[in-house]
Fold each of these.
Amino acid sequence: MKSRRKEFNWRPLLSLLASLVIALVIGGIFMLASGHNPLHVYVLMFKGGFVGASNIMNSLQRATPLIFTSLAVLIGFRTGTFNMGVEGQLLLGAVAAAWAGFTFKGLPAWIHLPLSILTAMAAGALWALVPAVLKFKCRVNEIITTIMGNSIATFFTAYLANYPLRENPMAAKTPRVLTTARLPRLVTYSQVNWGLFIAVFCALLFWYLFRRTTFGYRMRMVGDNALFAEYVGINPTRVAFGGMLLSGALAGLAGGVEVLGVHYRFFDPFVVGLGFNGILIGWLGKGSPIGALLAALFYGGMQNGSLMVDMTTDVPRQLSDTVLAIVVFFMAAEGLFDFFKALRRRSKTLKTTKGEVTTSA
Amino acid sequence: MLRDLLDISMIQSTIRMATPVLLAAMGAMVTSAAGIINISLEGTMLLSAFFAVVGSYFFSSVWMGLLIGVGTGMLVALLFGVFSLRFRAHIILMGIAINAFANAFTIYMLRSMFKVAGAFSDPRIVGFDQVHIPIIKDIPVLGPIVSGYAPIVYVAWLLVIVMHIFLYRTPAGVHLRAIGENEEAAESLGINVERVKLLAVLLSGLFASLAGVYLSLGHLTMFTENMSANRGFVGLAANIFGRGTPIGGALASLIFGFADALAMRLQGTGGIPSQLVLMFPSVLTIGILLMVAIKLARDVQRTKLRNVEKALSE
């Protein structure tokens, strides 16, 4: 254990930094093409994300759902399933939290709030149950079913917000959740709320589970080598099945916190992209909950910075999403760095052999 | 009720809706035949749809739109292929990254280039003219069903035959299928696995980009955010449903096209909330995948049973 800790693996961090630089350069080219000064924009973006109390608080608020969704995706990765349905599970969690939040009246906050959160988690897990059953009982690939699940969830929650749960005829919104179901805000000038602590707690919890418990060890083993896991007496199907449900519950929690802490209601169209960004950020964590936490916190800042750029210049806020996708694109190419290393080595050996030839001649 | 739905315009819109799915299914087929899971069809389609509009808008020519749209798709496919084959990138993650990039980047460009959000349409965007086939177009019933679509529709359906011949009658097709079935064996026979796989990825990029160009310049001439609307994934499902064959994929695409057309038609009638109607094609997709899986499992069990019987009788 001790020796492992000493040999810290710098490679993922280096490749992350290199990918980030490449992505920022490519993003810069896009901005140059539309007549903006990329350096100026990036400075604005950095300031908007990481400088000043209100910017930092808003960045933390944006990071909160991403911590949950990236953890949700990570648990899938760990157990060998691709939960691409985080987006849909989040929506169902959000609508369920809103429903529980305005329906149950007269409960004290210490019952109402946890109840609403649990409802959100249950809704997310329930929606993940469908692709899980399809995958593990009927062998239907989860990628397509979870993607289809997203569009079903989008339309279904839109239906709920437009018809049965609609509050007033003017807008597709549910009633506001009662004050007993709300997550307290941390400061007055930002929507950042107690959800952040729940998110950080979840990340630490999963870090602990993966590192120190047989539960986490089992999950890791199934993800790394299902055949071996089976050989040593673990039921890989059951573990992966549980992983998928846990993943859905976390996605539902993300939606629940978004409603109970930020918007206090569900509406159509709801916040888009939290789930999809979670997939990318979950990967940036390289399988570690702490890594995912840090990546989500960083990306929350980038996203908020990007929004500030959008508000002050005419560079669209999708800049951050674009850069994130490019980062993942280059990060995923594990062989890329080896390739260049090999190339350099080859050119070096070529040079030395050439040199030998010339000296001998 | 049913008679109201099965009129000629319904058949026409089925064919229109089926075309991009069919092209995506052909893309899925050619890559899955080589043992590659290509999730990037969706993003490729979206990027091509956008750049087709860009090309058509700036050059006032649908052919420039086609050229730039297809060029974009091929470039994406080339990146996907080189990164996943040469640089050992995680192939599913690469697909996810491409899709995420396509979604974010097209919205970014829509806003920074055309200063609009949501959708972009302009009289300067030139779309495809409808092809009116002489003689056939005047035959009642058959005429309006067969004639009057954008050229890509005909290309797509002809492609089914071309791909059938390619897969089963040409050396390249045989190599492709050999790799999908057993990569090591194919390699030991002297097939250049990497090159054939790259070819498959490029072909799928071509098909997906045609699907994208069709979306933005085929029937409507405009670009809207997330225009591909999961059609790349439906194409993957259609390929699975069609058991990896061109003709099977074509029939499956028709079913998905019909579901889309039906949803579109019912959406307008007002009886059922449109959100519930729009859920239907995705539910159908999952249902069909489930059906295929159950059938496959049953087939496997049957072969097992047969093997046992054979072993007992010997």
Amino acid sequence: MKRLGSTCVLMLFLALSFPCAFASEGTEADPIVVASKQFPESYLLAEIISQMLETEGYVVERKLGLGGTKVCNEALRRNEIDVYPEYTGTIQAVILELDFPLSLEEINERVEEFGIEALPMFGFNNTYEIAVRRSMAEELKLSKVSQLIDHPELRWGVEHEFFEREDGWPKLQRIYGFDSQPEGMQHELALRAVANGDIDVTDAYTTDAKIIDYDLVLLEDDKKVFPIYMAIPLIRSDLDAPIKRAIAGAAGKIDATTMTHLNAQVVIDGRTFASVALEFLAGIEDDSASENILVSQFKKLLPNVVRHLELTGIALIAATLIGLLVSVTVYRVTWLSRSVVYICGLMQTIPSIALLALMIPILGIGMKPAIVALFLYSLLPIVRNTVISLSTTDPLLVRIAEAMGMSQFERLRYVLVPLAMPAIFAGIRTSAVICIGTATLAAFIGAGGLGDPIVTGLALDNTGLILQGAIPAAILAIVTELVFEGLERLLVPGHLKVFGTTRSNEVAEST
Amino acid sequence: MNSDPVVSFTNVGKHFDGNWVFRGLSLDLPSSQVVAIVGESGSGKTTLLQLINGILRANEGSVEVMGNPVPESGLERFRRGIGYAVQGGGLFPHLTVYRNVTLLAQLEKWEQERSQQRYSELLKMVGLDPELRDRYPYQLSGGQQHRVSLCRALMLQPKILLLDEPFSAIDPMSRGEIHRQFTVLREQEKVSAFLVTHDLREAVALSHYLVVMAAGNIVQHGRTQDIIDNPEKDYVARLLETYL
């Protein structure tokens, strides 16, 4: 009885904390939500916008590194964010899907219907460039993109978005007549790969600090393929006029040289976005502002861990409750339980990052879609172990329980479920560890957690930052294993454990 | 002796996927006695037993228990009036001895004290130390497991006890003792016991009434002593000669 009691209390506590976790997401003073894409310049511009707003006395919520163009734009249209830095060329080609350049006025005429608005330009054009190693450029005497046609042996690696978007690789390939098949890569990794010689050609941005750092050369776009990418703040058109004025404050003040310089301070000097932005806005050197990004991120470790546990905890509890409920409902009907296990399995074959992305149109960004995705991900081990172990209970014991006059529920409650406990536990344990690992990807859709330093680290190509997320996540996974081991010792009678372990091994092997 | 039959089979037929175990079987079983159903494997004796508590349903004819047909619904209530014990004991491995024996009493919401008392009484009757209460089944010997299983079947003081080869896995040395304890127990509990066994010697030792089955037919049934004295068929006579 004591055993059941403690389980009930635990479940009740967790069930109660469920709605609270969602409620705590709703904020009190309706802050202005500033987001950015996942590269340093976008972080910096968003930070500059945030600080300008804060100077004017507004409360700002930062969702920096939220996602790519589609994620940010979708979030803006769904009123989940209020502003993020965008580029005119991106609006024209990706958002409006047009193949001719637009002025700011023309853009605003066309995006009005989505409830969004482009504010005046920051003052620099950050377009795509084609970058190669300096040593290779000198050796092959390369200075123009069109010369690459004579070198089909060169290996291309381009950013995923560049590869897909109409004004990126497809147009480049069409106009210049390349027939290489580029590999899709994360942007910073591609630059490093060019520098290392792992690949030879990649796409880059005009203001990319790493070009200097890696000693790369930009080739002249002699056929004028790449459109103009003027940086602008893209906002919700229903923001109050004073807010719009505050955001537009930096219009015309950042030229390409300034931007490259700002980027370099973050990417090469390892300073925080906040300190670089503050220094730029204040126009002076500020010692207190030159904090190292590793240190500043490290201070966020505890909140990140808490958020991580929140994401995985809620998803896992929901998966356990619903998984068990579904399992006990279907285990007796073979075709039904097979279909359920099959559907849960299907869920797991969707790559986690894709599953997270699929959630955005349905649930937007932030914790909710991340939790739902993690929940779907955790179902399989729990459902599979529970269904298999319930349906393979010793038939003699099932018959005795029936012959003793136990009802369907009593048989489950007193015989089947307790006997399946070790296997159920093994399933929950597996789910928990999967969940903790997968939750690091939740940062890609703005859910925070230990994925945050990883996303930022990828954007900055900063291994230290990546490890700040990866190491705690690994430790968390190990601790979770140990906690479950302890729980199992507490809740399952000793002699069943051996039996249970072998059985859950069988379960694992049978799939 | 009570003259009303406690269980009556009338023209009962049972098949599995079209293979008939028996058809047109009629039999009245007397109450307050030990009825042993003997026969070789596949003779249909276990099927007969499981028709009594509705684990199996007859395809033809009717099975009446204490004057009423085996109910269609409310089987749980009906079955709690019928004890059930099987070969190997069939104790729940995740429950202690005490929890195994008193599980049904708990479901019936008995007072703790009453459960405790009944538990101790039963264990003493089968010669077990009630102090075994916190042991798990794997910590008991085979003989102990069978005795605990008997106690579990009798916990709610059923009027009928169904036993499916309950003692066959016990070594012959302890079997004599458990037989004696069973006889004492049954008399004290005044329960009508139906015992399925392939061991004719056990059947003769324990039963007042004997049903001999072979290949889905009842070869002979009647008071055990009468059958021993007057085997009607060669089959029964040969059986008696071989085993006794």
